[in-house]
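User: I'm putting together a teaching handout on how multi-component assemblies are represented. Below are the sequence lines for each component of a complex, exactly as they appear in our records. Could you produce the 3D structure of the whole assembly as structure tokens, so the students can see both representations side by side? Please keep the chain order the same as the input.
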Amino acid sequence: MTMFIKIILLTSLIIVCISMIGIIYRLIVGPTVHDRVVGLDALGITLMAIIALISMVLDTKYFLVVILLIGILAFIGTISFAKFLEKGVIIEHERSNSEHRD
Amino acid sequence: MNDLIQNIAISFIMVLILIGALLSLVSTIGLLRLPDVYTRTHAASKASTLGVMMMMFGAFLYFWIVKGHFNAELFLAVLFIFITAPVGAHLITRSAYYYGVEPSKSTSHDDLKETNVDQS
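Assistant: Of course. Below is the structure of the complete assembly, with chains in the same order as your input.
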């Protein structure tokens, strides 16, 4: 049974790594900037899965803290990139802008 | 008897993880082959989210049933992906539309353009 678990985990790890290589191809080639942002988002989500699989292969529970952290960081990076590409700024200073205009 | 139940549970977990990995591969094929930013975001957000959720729910059940260690952080991570990945895809597609990225040639109808024209 342990051998069965090892084989399935390593097979799915290889499949996820192949899908990660495809995402990196889209990240390099992608014609517009938004393609690259989509690729980065998918790369972060896939990295979470790889960490879960590796912590099962290595039989430790101490990597599981990293998964939630990477998810939060990937989400914040994605929304800040989207806001920067749409509006040109990420954090708006409305009060200081109105003072400078007066 | 208990051993049999645990074997069935382990087989179920392994099937869950393998299907999740295959869904992640399908999402990557969609990301490589589709013609457009919007369709690529469609593939990357839906299939990849479901695959990663299945893999991480499998990891959660593995650590719970096999190792006897209930990890709440993995379950929270599954819920977090389920909430935030569609929101991120929505924001990227919206910013791509207002940035002026053209949809592919086979797009026949642009509803959002007519709505914006009506409002202004």
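A couple of points students might notice: Chain B has four helices and no strands. The CA atoms of residues 25 and 48 of chain B lie 8 Å apart.
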